[in-house]
Amino acid sequence: MTKSALLVMDVQQNIVGRVPDPDYVPRVARAVAAARRAGVPVMYVVVGFRAGHPEANPANKTFGALPPGAFTPDDEGAAVHPGVAPEKDEVVVVKKRVSAFAGSDLELLLRSGGIGHLVLAGIATSGVVLSTVRQAADLDFGLTVLSDGCADADPENHRLLTEKIFPRQAEVTTIDDWAASLA
Question: Any idea where the Isochorismatase-like domain is (predicted)?
Answer without folding.
Answer: 4-177
